[in-house]
Amino acid sequence: QVQLVESGGGLVEAGGSLRLSCVVSGSVLNINVMDWYRQTPGKQRERVPSIDGSQKGRFTISRDNAKNTVFLQMNSLKPEDTAVYYCHVVMYRFGNDVHYWGQGTQVTVSS
Known about the structure:
Layout: E1 2-7, E2 10-13, E3 18-26, E4 31-39, E5 46-48, E6 59-64, E7 69-74, E8 83-93, E9 96-101, E10 105-110
Parallel strand pairs: 2-10
Antiparallel strand pairs: 1-3, 3-7, 4-5, 4-8, 6-7, 8-9, 8-10
């Protein structure tokens, strides 16, 4: 069993900052990828920060490998950043890349 627990979401005014955290626990082995996605109703889930998206320069991912934790620092938030943010982890196990997702944390940016 692998658990991904996210925290740090909430309501913030435009221009503000939030830092999301995701702790991975359980049968943790061979983590290859730790990153973040977001999703709004009616849209596909997208990775953040995207290379050519509007989050460039505002969102930063960092990791604490010793604590199996990944962070998403979000600065200069805009109302269009409102979404559910999901932690995503890929582990190499049993000869395959296995994907795990957190339950999601809501981020709401008010104008």
